[in-house]
Amino acid sequence: MQKPFSQLAAVMALFTVLALSPGAMAASKDYTLVCNGRSMTAAFALHHPMFRGKPTIQVAFGKARNAASRQQPGPGQCAWVDRPLTASEPAIFYFRNAGNPVTRITVTTGETSAALYPVRLARQIPHGGLQSRAAQPIVLLDAIHRGQLFYIQAHTEQVRGRDVLIMTRFGP
């Protein structure tokens, strides 16, 4: 009787060690990336092939030389709050499952036209307003369009065999 119990204890100890090891599968930790939207390029793909045809915003940027806490990133640049990006880290971030990032709607009736800006409308979205999942793509593209300093939460993960920087949330 003693032997099965000791085997069970050994197996449970092994699973505990594997679960607590640094290489164990766990949710990726997000870090704050600070970006200067001026001169930055963003593209929206309704069916991005890298993400199994999901709508995705792709933002290319330059790597700032300093941590954002030391110096604000220059136009079109991003940096982590506590350090600059390394040479091996990607200089593109993706916001997958982005929904429809309409940034401006022009309504024309006869000779009169008016522009509606969804960012203003996003402030009225329930359950989080500008921080809601529905408003995230609008607010991101608006910050880039206006050339503003903005913050995102992001992490690196493997997508189709390469490291990719994934935005999970707009804002610090």
Describe the structure.
It is a single chain. This protein is an alpha+beta fold. It has one domain (about 30-170). About 20% of the residues lie in helices and about 35% in strands. The protein contains 3 helices and 10 strands, in the order αββββββββααββ. It has helices at about 1-20, 120, 135-145; strands spanning about 30-35, 40-50, 55-60, 60-65, 75-80, 90-95, 105-110, 110-115, 150-160, 160-170. The longest helix has 19 residues, at about 1-20. It is globular. The N and C termini lie far apart (about 55 Å). Mean pLDDT is about 75; it is low at about 5-25 and about 115-130.
Major sheet: size, sense and barrel closure? Answer: 8 strands, mixed
Please write the string of helix (H) and strand (E) elements: HEEEEEEEEHHEE
How many whole angstroms does the radius of gyration measure? 21 Å
Number of domains: 1
Tell me the span between the first and last alpha carbons. Answer: 56 Å
Largest sheet strand order: 2-3-6-10-9-1-5-4
What proportion of the residues is helical, as a percent range?
10-25%
